[in-house]
Amino acid sequence: ETDLGDLELVEKASENLMLYAEHTWGYSSSISEPWETLVGELEMKKTAYAINGNTYASKNLDKILAKKGEVSIKNFRPQHFRVINPHEIPLRTKAVIYVELWEYLDGVSFGLDVPFEVVDSITGKVLPSQVVRIPRAFEIEVMVSLEAKEERELSIRRIKPKEITIKNHAHIGAEGIEDIILSNTYEESTRKVETNDFIIQFSLKKGIEKIINKATNENIVRDMDIAPFSGIYEITPIKGDFCDTRRRMGRNRKAESTKRYYSFLTDIGVVENGEVFIALRLDYQLEGTGTYSVFLKIYKQMPQIDAMVRIHKHSIWEPENLYVALPFTTNENESTYVDKTGCIIRPGIDQLPGSNKEFYLIQNGIVLHGEKSNVIISIKDAPLITFGDLESKPIELCTGEDVDYNRETPYSWIMNNYWETNFKADLGGFYEFAYSILVTENETPKESFIKCEATNEGVLGFYIDK
Length: 466
Fold this sequence. Notes:
InterPro entries: Gal_mutarotase_sf_dom
CATH class of the largest domain: Mainly Beta
GO molecular function: carbohydrate binding; hydrolase activity
Protein name: Glycosyl hydrolase
Helix content: 10-25%
GO biological process, one term: carbohydrate metabolic process
Organism: Lachnoclostridium phytofermentans
Shape: globular
């Protein structure tokens, strides 16, 4: 909105982000001579476009929020916040607000041991909330119901500690471990987590095994060996030089000699549990990585599961691919939809004959549209996806009638370095990729994609003066 922001900043952000998105990554010898000075210089130049685009966008957002009442934090200011739903649809969702480590709440230094509640400043209604410690601050997630474009004021206030009733059964043993399920409660363990909307069952061999959608009583995880959010890594041995090996792949992204590895679970544990969500960490071992962990956040008061895939990737010169498995389904007679720039399509069906169906660039995610329900796979920051068998095979172009292909298992294609020129050879480093799974009923694919976009973008929460 130009009356709130700055059109010049928007144009500068757009130009820089467009230049960053331009497909040529860098210098022509980036694969054959990755140590070349120009390769490093153009990498930094390319990164500068993204940084500058982010800077202009952030400055514009600061101007907008200032006009909406945002103020700088300071000592002894009461904790008052404004939450805004900027979307065209009503949302039952989480709002995130922050309290700095040095802040005081009603004269007491804020901390995890300080009892508090979040209230609607107008109605006084207490809202479900949960706090976690993060670097330099406390992050509070609040469950809110907001109409389209609605603004709401929230406050944090200190309360008396809740009295604890001593029970006469040993659901917690002398060693401090709570491993007995109480009656009239949902199970919340590394074996099973139940909420108002889901029953999630875990396998100690692979991770998530089943997710039962209570609204339909259907398992929304496909019956296959690959678990949701687990990793698949591929590497192709070098024959000849590093460029020729890639060139010989042709339009494929792998060769007959490509080696494929699947992650396997090494540990699982509950790391957070409160009124809003329960969080588990699933640690995997995967070739090509030093760390492959899934931070799973299961919400208790809305049908949504968030997954943060955290990776420490090794530096490898050989051609490689890394995928995140998304084996979801409505378990109904379903069609798969993806959102492209300006349109929604069914891969394999709503395409020109002779067009590519090996991979797709998407905007917000995937919608599995069933007869009664939809499964929304929100993909925040990994725009490439692929479907079906990952084996090397001759390229088949789309006929426009590939219904079976449309129902294949989707994968998020998060990393590759197989192009022989202009693209980065080294994928090493630390990464995080965000996904959300939502279930809805009686929605069109278009309605689900609007919700998918709103999930990716979230709602705004910021400090205000009372």
